[in-house]
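re: that complex we talked abt at group meeting.

here r the seqs, copy pasted straight from the sheet so there may be weird spacing, ignore it
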Amino acid sequence: MHTHNGRVPVPTLERLATYLRFLIDLDQTSTETISSAEVERQTGINAAQFRKDLSYFGEFGKPGVGYNVTDLQARIARILKIDREQRIILVGAGNLGSALVGYPGLKEHRFNLVAVFDNNYGKIGRPLWDLEILDVLKLKEVNQKLGARIAILAVPAPAAQSVADLMVHAGIHAILNFAPVLLRVPKHVFVRNVSFLQELAVLSYHLSVEIMPDTGQIGGEPHNGHEALDATHAPEGDADASIPSASAPIHSD
Amino acid sequence: MHTHNGRVPVPTLERLATYLRFLIDLDQTSTETISSAEVERQTGINAAQFRKDLSYFGEFGKPGVGYNVTDLQARIARILKIDREQRIILVGAGNLGSALVGYPGLKEHRFNLVAVFDNNYGKIGRPLWDLEILDVLKLKEVNQKLGARIAILAVPAPAAQSVADLMVHAGIHAILNFAPVLLRVPKHVFVRNVSFLQELAVLSYHLSVEIMPDTGQIGGEPHNGHEALDATHAPEGDADASIPSASAPIHSD
DNA sequence: GACGGATTGTAACCTTTTTCACAAACGCCT
DNA sequence: AGGCGTTTGTGAAAAAGGTTACAATCCGTC
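got the structure back, here u go
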């Protein structure tokens, strides 16, 4: 057991979250152990990749047997530090912010959203789900008690940088940024950007390329490889809407 | 000028969207031309990277001078095919879906959300912003008229795959997927996944790693562990790290 | 308790992406 | 016009990330 104290590739961390999600789903089907080959079959992620990702953090499986599902779950959760409650605060009680506060997936993964802030006095003091919207100017003061180190930034672009500054002042060390802005933060603060527009732009580009007749390169090569799964990566994020899985079976042919 | 009609790295496309955003912001400050070095200074993205990214699509700048800001804007927008209206449909009128429909950034970037679908009969027929929620079973029929090729999938995991099938059936070629599911789609359909939980998990991990070496104690629940704010990095103007709430409203709407 | 089928962990290899480095191109100034 | 500082575009080197291949390990069986 040698917790490989070097830098771990970010893609590995992303996949780790995916594995965790997968294992949790798997657990429902009462599978005792699982092999990396089986993971590949079900997720499309290369088996060796799976093993290598895990190897950054020690040894998890038994040769000839595979990985104990519940144990692996626990250990990945521990690695990602989501085996215990993680406190999160959110700034920006707009549409997106509200949607995030109400998103049950957060709690399911032990992310506990403990406070919501805004600077709109029409909103401050009002309830948002089970929280009360607080004045963003009290962010530092409030977080001194809460001690959250992760924050979600869901404000319009023009306000993003100043809110980020406030967050840093309030002791935040990691920011999930939904604003289409490159934040300037001290070195010790980590930022992850989520950008719908960027994603859509990438899709838009691919779309156009696909239509171009000349190159004939995009569609897919006549390779023998098993190209069943989509090229993009395994997901983990959660969606949210009101399509009850059981009520109206959404046709599939 | 040789539009390098080969495969363009996805990271390049992602950055292209970033550059575009940056240039638009820059435009407000009436900068005529900009050099790659200046881009690096302001965005943190390596200058050579910037130049190489652009080089996939031809020649954009003048040696000794730099890049014309407005021209570069236009050309990147053209590359990403967001220089014209792009029609998008969305399935899943839940919290997230609603937030996306109401997100003004879409229209600003010429993404025109033309229809919203759900399968909840309590919702179908009701208005959502300026649209009416339609029956997801009519997706194909409706899109025959609309001709959208990009779709946003914002439904709960259990429904995701069947909705994706419907989308493909309806002529959709690109899907922005918010559900935590690996979608199986034909080769000609592109999928991009967006995952809050994954992002949070990555942040969570980094957080723990950062704190580990120094304090050795991370489990600390409600520590008022406000490790000294980076004195060296003090943002301009110490007295006011506060939000210029008058100048930049935070609340999204 | 050795044998065989199964599966891990990882070293070696291959691919993709980023960074470096520099000739060629440009504008300005004299 | 020619020299000079600046900046691009791009091959070549480096780094990062992903895949292959296989010795080492394990469990069940005889």
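couple things i noticed - Chain B touches chain A through 124 residues (CB under 8 Å). Chain B is about 40% helix and 15% strand.
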